[in-house]
Amino acid sequence: MTTWTDLMQGSYTLGYVDAGGVRTRYLEAGSGDNVLIFLHGVGGHLEAYTRNILPHAEHFRVIAFDMIGHGFTAKPDVAYEIPDYVRHLRDVMDALGVARAHLSGESLGGWVAEKFAAAYPQRTNRLVLNTAGGLTADPAVMQRIKTLTLAAVENATRESVRARLEWLMHDKSKVTDELVDVRFAIYSQPGFLDAMRNIMCLQDLDVRTRNLITDAELRTVEAPTLVVWTTHDPTGAVEVGQRFADTVPDGRLVVIDNAGHWPQFEQADEFNALHLDFLLGKSLHAKNRVPEASARPTH
Question: Is 261 a catalytic residue?
Answer without folding.
Answer: yes
